[in-house]
Amino acid sequence: MGRWGKMIAKDTGRFFRNSRKRNMSRAFAEAVKYAAKNPIRTLKEARVVSASDIYESLSKLKEQGIGVSVIHAVDDTLFPMEKVMEIAKEKGGMDTIGFYSVKGDHREISVHSEKYAALAVNALEDLTKRT
Q1: What is the pLDDT of residues 51-90, one digit of tens each?
Q2: Overall domain count for the chain
């Protein structure tokens, strides 16, 4: 089972255990609707995202004077924290102003947005001060 399958399995388990079913149901329904209307495009987009080099993109944004902060979940199964840090080290760092690690998995912020709203606001305020 790949990283995507693990995330879906985890979300399914969380759905049946959790009181946040409405948020998860809405997100899942929207994803299914999009994929059903655009199956080929969805597969192409997934392939492009999985093969993309965010580090190169971050460097280009920095060159253009655009500040970026990253909020990354420590238990992310799609982009494991260890791998993110390993690649950042290999590339000589990450061209971001802020890097915030949070508890949870890849979709934590979308499932529990109320927990992370203040962090996102603080990250934006930090970007404004430093750019």
Answers
A1: 888 888 888 888 998 888 899 999 998 888 998 889 888 8
A2: 1
**Angle at Cα 101 formed by Cα 65 and Cα 109, nearest 5°?**
90
Give the domain range for residue 76. Answer: 3-130
> Of the candidates 108, 106, 23, 102, which has an alpha carbon nearest to the alpha carbon of residue 69?
102
The CA distance from 131 to 92, in Å, is 21
What is the amino acid identity at position 68? V
Residue 110's identity, in one-letter code, is S
Give residue-wise pLDDT tens across range 11-56.
666 666 665 566 667 777 888 899 999 999 999 998 898 788 888 8
